[in-house]
Amino acid sequence: MSTCTDNWTEVEAAAKLVLGEPIVAFIEARRGQAHPESQLIAVLHRVQAEYGYLADAHLDAVAQLMQVPAAKVAGVASFYHFFRLKPRGKFMINVCLGTACYVKGAERVAQKIIEELGITWGETSKDGVFTLEGTRCLGTCGLAPVVMIDEQIHGELTPDQVPALLESYLKKSRA
Ligand code: FES
After folding, report:
1. What are all long-range contacts of 112-117, with beta carbons under 8 Å and residues at least 24 apart?
2. 94 C-alpha to center of ligand 1: Å?
């Protein structure tokens, strides 16, 4: 493989430290292939699957290894909503903001979650347990309003039920 980097061995060693050997191998298999942006997105997905989010150090290492400008990698990572640039909590709360849920009071449920956790959309609670996101229709409109925590659907929620629901996950996080 030819590179335009004089200190390639050092770059590769540093990237292995940041990303781990399996991801470096994943990148090496894709470097120079057709559709570079698709390859970059696939790599960023792989990194996020491993670490839960994309830290600056991950993005820099990907840029070095794929030999694309760091600004390009950062631009792709921030453009697509499915990439996370901050660490996520142990549990991901997704409040459905689709029409059926909205009509049935999703906003009030969301407001209660926001009050209870002291965070807003896209943030993670200080204890690192919860990250709050809004989402489009989850396909369970008959249970509106719906909140999904990780893969678990909680339907017909009222604001009054929110504290106990969050507490049940807090207990799980301590288990
Ligand atoms: S609108 Fe919320 S599940 Fe469909």
Report:
1. 112/159, 112/162, 112/163, 113/147, 113/162, 113/166, 116/162, 116/163, 116/166, 117/166
2. 11
